[in-house]
Predict the structure of Glycoside hydrolase family 2 protein.
Amino acid sequence: MTGNGRVRGAGILMGMATAMSFASMAMAAPHQATVWNGKVAPLATRWTAEVSPGNALPEYPRPQLARPSLEHPQWMNLNGLWQYAPGDGQGAPPFGQTLKGQVLVPYPIESVLSGVQKHADFMFYRRLVNVPAAFTAHGQHVRLNFGAVDHDATVYVNGTQVARHTGGYTSFSADITPALRPHGPQEIIVAVHAPVDGANVMVGKQRLKPEGIFYTAASGIWQSVWLEPVPAASLAQLNFIPARGLDAFTVTSRLHGRREDTTLHVIAYADGRTVGEASGPAGQPLHLAIAHPRLWSPQDPFLYTFKATLTQGDQRDEATSYAGLRTIAVEKVGGRNRIVLNGKPTFLLATLDQGYWPDGIYTAPTDAALKFDIQKTRDLGFNTIRKHIKVEPARWYYWADRIGLMVWQDMPALPTDRNDKLSDADKAAFRADVSSIVEHLKGETSIIGWIPFNEGWGQWSIPAAAELAAQIKQLDPSRLVDARSGANCCDTKGDPHAGDVYDVHDYQGPGLPSPDAERAAIDGEHGGLTLGIPGHVWPNTPINPYGAVKDRAALNAGYVANTAVLRDKGVARGMSGSVYTQITDVEGEHNGLFTYDRKIEKVDEAKVRAINEATIRAGGQP
């Protein structure tokens, strides 16, 4: 659900939300469970008790540029307990001082798993680390990597500033070699500013006073932190973009350090067999032809693996990667604009996926939990996810790539109801953050389209959506752009007449838009049938009650009937996709197919899968 609780166009909220005004509260106390430090979780998932300081997300965080080796581990996981203290934004970093508090990284400070469970606008993290001697042997450099920190992070090593990064949804890295001491522990301090309600920055659905469709804030370090040794010139990013002919990849790379006299060599493998090879100057595109190409699709999510070697003199940086071979486009099919995957008309049947957790908020408690939502989406017969107003850790996209889900990727929104208060600097910062996110996620096979604005949130004018769509298309012409999801509501109303997709929202719906002369058509949000399950709801939170049904039988019947309209009428109108709200409950929203704790599947999986598969089959006909 993305609307703001007021009745909006064509009975989208059915009037019920207005009448009840979010007044109902959570129906029952949740099942209680304690976390690693003895605190009681407000609502525990099936993975909450598995998390401890010794196993906080131990998996290598970046599958598309991986350097781990079973024989010689080439990375050090810094997830675990760090010293912690809130700040006031005025004092100097606490160099050489032991902080009184502690936090479990990488869980945001508002989460019970972090051990803090309280917001602060300013905060310090501190950790002492012994860097293995092997990391600096033979002239190697040591890089300190952060998956994401919300929102503004300044990093110091032994009192020296080594990085400054703004933007809570993209990774960053620093060469800390010059700041390392010859012996003994190294002091790492991260100073963070997290202005959830106090600045016009990307915050998504975070709020300090959550209610309805807005949720608890997630501040500070919220993705993995790790060290790894690299040569003076090393790979920073690898992207494999499928060629239009579906017989090759264009390989692009970004480097750390000097690129002079560097060569990149890439080998492609299919099930362990070499199927392609290419070499050339690093930093320039390579053409990597693939023998006997096998395409990626939800029906067959086949991934090629790659070994990349960067050479500069006698120094070598080796990494592994992966990608699927697929294209996505809008083409005329039967005289109408339709979305085609690998040249074939495809109905993108999606769930809305907010990516929130009752124990970790923005951060899934474990990698198995991260995989769970994606796998269950696939088991229910969907072929697409709309990742809503949030960017996920790299491993989320890895699981989407492997399991076979296409992804509409939203941009995290600016705060709502401030469109007329945005300065030129605010707009420029948003444009820059959008570009950073596109570049950050460019290599993910599962992502088939970008959505810069949802319902006009943070959209300062109607032309702004067209402007951002053009900006994204220039950065990434290989994917679709949905310039504005929900063109029929709510802030800055109006269709921008831009991008590849015309998108309406209709609760309960579904909406039945038709393609126009330039764009395919989808219902970007519909459904939202609400059913709370006592004992499995977020406590002490007003409920958004739109679309209420009385029991699980009614929820099943309602979902099947809602989706049957897409099968019987939407396809006939030339629609290319839809997004059902939503895969799980989230705090005050009880409209998930699963409860917020993921313990209860509220629908009959076989019945949902049957109507979903029938709709996808109907939508795949030419």
